[in-house]
Amino acid sequence: MVSLYNKIPDMECISGDTLPAFEVSVESKNLENCRMQCVLSKASAPENTLICKDCNKIDGGFSVILTSEDTGRLAEGTYIIYFRLTDSAGFDYIKLCGNLYVRSGPGAGET
Predict the structure, then answer these.
(1) Which of 37, 66, 86, 102 could form a disulfide with 70 if both were Cys (CB 3.0 to 4.6 A apart)?
(2) What mean pLDDT is reported for the chain?
(3) CB 91 within 8 A of CB 33
(4) Is the pLDDT of residue 111 over 70?
(5) How many Å apart are CA 104 and CA 71, to the nearest integer?
(6) Which residues make Cβ contacts (< 8 Å) with residue 109, sequence separation at least 6?
(7) What pLDDT was estimated at residue 106?
(8) What's the pLDDT score for residue 26?
(9) Taking the model in full, what pTM does it have?
């Protein structure tokens, strides 16, 4: 099987956690007209995007933090997380892809 992206290690969090910053290096000297997004979808329905968050440009790449507000929207289960680069010509490339396992936090489901 041919892979056009790098696999990232599986990750786990509790719904409502703020995750450490993801920093993605890009081998390009000109990122001026490029952008990157962090995208999450349920593994059982990858065509349905649940979170699509713009990454910030940093020296040599992009960075994003999934906050407690972001992960708090995710129910317990397995999600696909990937980083989509859009180049200056408007073409999309998946740079990294992996699984995020979300567990319910204490008190989840209580009203």
Answers:
(1) 66
(2) 87
(3) no
(4) no
(5) 10
(6) none
(7) 64
(8) 82
(9) 0.85
Q: What are the residues whose beta carbons fall under 8 Å from the beta carbon of 60, sequence distance 6 or more?
A: 25, 26
Residue among 55, 57, 6, 64 at smallest CA distance from 30: 57
Please say whether the beta carbons of 76 and 103 come within 8 A. Answer: yes
The count of C-alpha atoms lying within 13 angstroms of the C-alpha of 102, restricted to the half-sphere facing its C-beta, is 25
Count of Cβ atoms closer than 10 Å to residue 60 Cβ: 13
3-class SS string, the chain? CCCCCEECCCEEEECCCCCCCEEEECCCCCCCCCEEEEEEEECCCCCCEEEEEECEEECCEEEECCCHHHHCCCCCEEEEEEEEEECCCCCEEEEEEEEEEEECCCCCCCC
Q: Is 64:22 a contact under the CB 8 Å cutoff?
A: yes
% of residues, the chain, pLDDT over 70: 88
Distances (CA, A) of 22 to 27, 82, 84, 96: 16, 11, 13, 11
